[in-house]
Amino acid sequence: MKFRLFYNKKPKLSVSDIDTFSGNEYVCHFLLQTMSGKPVTISQSADPDLGIWRVQHGFSCIYFGTYAEAMDYCRERFCDLSGKRLKKRGRK
Q1: Rounded to whole angstroms, what are the CA distances from 53 to 7, 11, 29, 48, 57?
Q2: Where are the chain's structural domains?
Q3: What is the pLDDT of residues 20-67, one digit of tens each?
Q4: How many degrees, rounded to 5, is the angle at CA 53 between CA 47 and CA 58?
Q5: What is the DSSP string of 34-92?
Q6: pTM, two decimal places
Q7: How far is the first Cα of the chain from the last one, in angstroms, to the nearest whole number?
Q8: Could you count the other beta carbons within 10 Å of the beta carbon of residue 79?
Q9: 6-22, pLDDT tens digit by residue?
Q10: Looking at residue 21, what DSSP letter applies?
Q11: Are residues 65 and 53 in contact, defined by beta-carbon separation less than 8 angstroms?
Protein backbone atom coordinates (compact mmCIF):
# COMPACT_ATOMS: atom_id res chain seq x y z
CA MET A 1 0.00 0.00 0.00
CA LYS A 2 1.39 3.41 -0.95
CA PHE A 3 0.77 6.35 1.35
CA ARG A 4 0.21 9.91 0.14
CA LEU A 5 -0.04 13.17 2.03
CA PHE A 6 -3.01 15.44 1.43
CA TYR A 7 -3.11 19.03 2.55
CA ASN A 8 -6.19 21.15 3.37
CA LYS A 9 -8.89 18.71 2.22
CA LYS A 10 -9.77 15.19 3.23
CA PRO A 11 -8.74 12.82 0.40
CA LYS A 12 -11.54 11.33 -1.68
CA LEU A 13 -10.98 7.77 -2.90
CA SER A 14 -12.29 6.60 -6.27
CA VAL A 15 -12.24 3.45 -8.38
CA SER A 16 -9.28 4.86 -10.33
CA ASP A 17 -7.16 4.55 -7.15
CA ILE A 18 -7.26 0.72 -7.21
CA ASP A 19 -3.91 0.43 -9.00
CA THR A 20 -2.29 2.48 -6.24
CA PHE A 21 -3.07 -0.29 -3.76
CA SER A 22 -1.74 -3.18 -5.87
CA GLY A 23 1.74 -4.58 -5.28
CA ASN A 24 4.01 -7.41 -6.39
CA GLU A 25 2.34 -10.11 -4.30
CA TYR A 26 -1.32 -8.97 -4.33
CA VAL A 27 -3.54 -7.33 -6.93
CA CYS A 28 -6.25 -5.01 -5.58
CA HIS A 29 -9.69 -5.84 -7.02
CA PHE A 30 -12.02 -3.80 -4.82
CA LEU A 31 -11.69 -0.64 -2.78
CA LEU A 32 -13.85 0.23 0.24
CA GLN A 33 -13.48 2.57 3.20
CA THR A 34 -13.90 2.50 6.95
CA MET A 35 -16.63 4.57 8.57
CA SER A 36 -13.98 7.24 9.18
CA GLY A 37 -12.96 7.32 5.50
CA LYS A 38 -9.73 5.31 5.63
CA PRO A 39 -9.03 2.94 2.72
CA VAL A 40 -9.83 -0.77 2.82
CA THR A 41 -8.56 -3.03 0.04
CA ILE A 42 -9.71 -6.44 -1.12
CA SER A 43 -6.81 -8.02 -2.97
CA GLN A 44 -6.11 -11.40 -4.53
CA SER A 45 -2.77 -13.17 -4.49
CA ALA A 46 -0.82 -12.63 -7.72
CA ASP A 47 -0.05 -16.37 -7.70
CA PRO A 48 -3.11 -17.98 -9.33
CA ASP A 49 -2.38 -21.33 -7.67
CA LEU A 50 -2.89 -19.89 -4.18
CA GLY A 51 -6.23 -18.13 -4.67
CA ILE A 52 -5.86 -16.28 -1.36
CA TRP A 53 -7.86 -13.10 -0.76
CA ARG A 54 -6.63 -10.38 1.59
CA VAL A 55 -8.60 -7.61 3.28
CA GLN A 56 -6.28 -4.84 4.43
CA HIS A 57 -7.20 -1.80 6.49
CA GLY A 58 -4.79 0.28 8.52
CA PHE A 59 -2.12 -2.07 9.86
CA SER A 60 -4.41 -5.12 9.82
CA CYS A 61 -4.49 -7.87 7.19
CA ILE A 62 -7.05 -10.67 7.24
CA TYR A 63 -6.79 -13.58 4.80
CA PHE A 64 -9.64 -15.60 3.27
CA GLY A 65 -9.92 -18.61 0.97
CA THR A 66 -12.63 -17.12 -1.26
CA TYR A 67 -13.84 -13.74 -2.44
CA ALA A 68 -17.29 -14.44 -0.92
CA GLU A 69 -15.77 -14.95 2.54
CA ALA A 70 -13.83 -11.70 2.23
CA MET A 71 -16.94 -9.78 1.20
CA ASP A 72 -19.00 -11.29 4.03
CA TYR A 73 -16.40 -9.98 6.46
CA CYS A 74 -16.44 -6.53 4.84
CA ARG A 75 -20.24 -6.20 4.72
CA GLU A 76 -20.37 -6.17 8.51
CA ARG A 77 -17.64 -3.59 8.97
CA PHE A 78 -17.07 -1.22 6.05
CA CYS A 79 -18.82 1.00 3.51
CA ASP A 80 -18.41 1.77 -0.18
CA LEU A 81 -16.54 4.79 -1.54
CA SER A 82 -19.64 6.97 -1.36
CA GLY A 83 -19.99 6.27 2.38
CA LYS A 84 -22.99 3.92 2.16
CA ARG A 85 -23.07 0.65 4.10
CA LEU A 86 -22.64 -2.47 2.00
CA LYS A 87 -25.83 -4.43 1.40
CA LYS A 88 -26.36 -7.77 3.06
CA ARG A 89 -25.81 -10.81 0.90
CA GLY A 90 -28.93 -11.82 -1.04
CA ARG A 91 -30.73 -8.50 -0.58
CA LYS A 92 -31.26 -5.77 -3.15
Answers
A1: 33, 26, 10, 11, 13
A2: 15-75
A3: 888 888 999 999 999 888 889 999 999 878 889 999 998 999 999 999
A4: 120
A5: -TTS-EEEEEEESSTTT--EEEEETTEEEEESSHHHHHHHHHTT-B-TTSPBPPPTT--
A6: 0.77
A7: 32
A8: 17
A9: 565 666 778 877 888 88
A10: G
A11: yes
